[in-house]
Amino acid sequence: MSTIAATNHPKPAVYSVGLDPDSNREITLAAEANAMGFRIEGGFEGLQPEEHHSARGCLFVGPDAAEDLPESLLTASRLSVIAVLPSCPADRASQLMRQGLYAVVTLPLQQPALVELIVDAARQSELRHARLSENVGAIQRMGQATAKELEVLDLIIAGQKNREIAETLGITVRAVEDRRYRLLRKVGVDSLPELVALATTARIARSGLSEVNREYRSGRGQSQSCIKGIEIWTMSEEHRELRICQSTYRDAESFREATVGVTFHRGEGLPGKVWEQRAPVFLKELVRPGFVRSTAAEVVRMNSAIGIPCFLRQSVEAVIVFLLDDFQETPAAFESWRIDPQSSKMHLVDGIYFNARHLEQLTPHVHFPLGVGLPGISSGDARPQAVVQIGEHPDVIRSASCFRDGIEHAVTIPLTSSGSAISDVFVLLSNDARPVFGLIQIWKVVDNHLELSFEALNGTATDLPRETPIASEGSLQERCFRQQRPLLADDEDEITLTQESATKNLQMAIVCPTTIGNRVVAVTLLGCQ
After folding, report:
1. Treating both helix axes as pointing N-terminal to C-terminal, what angle do 21-33 and 111-142 enclose, rounded to 10 degrees?
2. Domains parsed from the chain with CATH numbers
3. What whole-number distance in Å separates Cα of residue 219 and Cα of residue 497?
4. Residue 181 main-chain phi, psi, to 5 deg
5. What residue ranges of the chain have pLDDT lower than 70?
6. Which of 66, 240, 286, 528 could potentially form a cystine with 508 if both were Cys, beta carbons 3.0 to 4.6 Å apart?
7. How buried is 513 (Cβ within 10 angstroms: 0-12 exposed, 13-18 middle, 19+ buried)?
8. How many Cβ atoms sit within 10 Å of the Cβ of residue 167?
9. How far apart are CA 304 and CA 325, in angstroms?
């Protein structure tokens, strides 16, 4: 049996606590197959992160040890923890993984699967090691900031502009600019978004990710949605360019002004790239050369954007653009999924993740067969889907990662009528306490009218009345159905709702049609508070 040094071993290794000799023998063989060392520990003392900072790899624990796992091993260590149990019902396995275990396996251990599990667990451990190292670096860099510089930074994060900060602190605008400039240089970043990201990483690291996730789930510190604006770009009559059709912004009127008169040809700007690629496009940094409205975006704190195509009869008829403010501490994810012709499974094409690192790290390794998982079901059915209470949902493959990140509900929109045999799928995942879209509705077409099939308010599904609600004539949903195109609500629009409370503080609402051929089969409404 190969062993490793008790401390400070530079390579990922395999550890065992509380397992029987037969299980340890099988794990030893699998570790050796991966050229990794193996060590049996008498307990968790030598593996505690505060005492054994460099322990990386995976830790196998027996039934008794699984019940006595220190929380620090699940939240602060670099190890991927795997429970080995005689048997384990699916709900118990799900519960353990929500607590932070990487995996649960049952006896007898099988070599091929065990070898593969160790590879995946070690890879996850290295990702965690990189993240924790990044956290330490962020804390050290932000530790150079003075109290006066942090005063300015706190107000920047709170959304104040230089003049407002100056008035709040009783200093000049020049002094605000000087403090900001010194802080940028001191911590070694070039832009305000980089500075805020570094500060956020340092603060999360200081407080501990588990505390942050508990805060997300408890709803403390409510903030606005990360949606800063929504635009709909439609094709000109000659199909030569995209023009702004409708737009709505939160505290960003200057961005509206910067959009006046702007058009995009195929391949130009975010809408033009969506038109050219016929698929969602993710811009993860707006304040950069090449983004037409970069200066205006920086002024109003827009940091990233997503463009989504809307098809009709295999042609791009419109592009929806979501403009995002990633300074918010809201956990959220926006993803695009596509069928892989070689494996015939759905795989992630691209995505933007806010405060959802577990999900972001796991998702590139996940593939969904058609009919499995939210992307697979939505693509196979060619219909939008929605799920609440993701962490407890048996059909959501990524439920454990979602739970750890505080993500609790999701909605999918298949990009139908594109001409592809299998539709791409756009997926939005969010938190109940601070949802990206507080109101979600899915309407299905029945006998040439819309009937409500799903509604959720702040992540809680509505108990629909026995008599199915029907979209009223002239409502936003009904006009989307008739006009076969996405629409934004304005102050004059009627929106069909089942709860009056859903309209409270509703600042933005968009409806998106799902079409097959030349007919609308469903309408999705997303309302932002």
Report:
1. 70
2. 13-138 (3.40.50.2300), 143-207 (1.10.10.10), 228-327 (3.30.450.40)
3. 25
4. -60, -45
5. 1-10, 49-54, 75-76, 90-91, 94-95, 98, 131-135, 158-159, 193, 200-201, 203-224, 288-290, 327-329, 391-396, 491-493, 498-505
6. 528
7. buried
8. 13
9. 7
Distance CA 376, CA 345 (A): 8
Three-state SS at 104: strand
270/288 Cα distance (integer angstroms):
13
- 357 closest CA partner among 147, 205, 510: 205
Nearby residues of 34 by Cβ (< 8 Å), 6 or more positions away: 115, 118, 119, 122
459 is written with which tokens?
């992540």
Strands of 107-167, DSSP E: none
Length of the chain: 529
Residue partners of 338: CB distance under 8 A and separation at least 6: 279, 346, 347, 349, 424, 425
Q: Are 373 and 401 in contact (CB under 8 A)?
A: no
Would the pTM of this model clear 0.70, i.e. be above it?
A: no
- Return d(Cα 356, Cα 332) in angstroms, integer: 7
What pairing do the DSSP bridges indicate for beta strands 487-488 and 439-446? unpaired
pLDDT of amino acid 52 = 41
> Is the CB of residue 81 less than 8 Å from the CB of residue 128?
no
Instruction: Give the torsion sign (CA, 521, 233, 350, 489).
Output: negative
Here the tokens at position 450 are: 């819309």
How many of the other CB atoms lie within 10 Å of CB of 69? Answer: 19
Question: Nearest-CA neighbor of 128 among 81, 77, 202, 199?
Answer: 77
Q: At what angle do helices 173-187 and 192-207 cross, to 10 degrees?
A: 70
Question: Among all chains, which residue has been given the structure tokens 């997300």?
Answer: 216
**Sheet architecture: strand order including 304-312:** 263-264, 242-249, 227-235, 315-324, 304-312, 281-283
Q: Assess contact for 262 and 296: CB atoms under 8 A.
A: no
Residue type, 327: F
193 contact partners, CB below 8 Å, separation of at least 6 = 285, 287, 303, 326, 327
Query: Kindly report the CA angle at 436 between 465 and 481, in degrees rounded to 5?
Result: 55
pLDDT of residue 361: 84
Burial classification of residue 87, based on how many CB atoms lie within 10 Å of its CB (0-12 exposed, 13-18 middle, 19 or more buried): exposed
Tokens 């026995």 — which residue? Answer: 466
The values of phi and psi at residue 25, to 5°, are -65, -45
**What is the token pair recorded at 268?**
């130009």
Please give the angle made by the CA atoms of 80, 219 and 224, to the nearest 5 degrees: 110
User: Which residue do the tokens 């932000």 mark?
Assistant: 142
Three-state secondary-structure class, residue 182: helix
395/381 Cα distance (integer angstroms): 16
The three-state secondary structure class of 498 is coil
Adjacent-strand bridge partners of 60: 16, 82
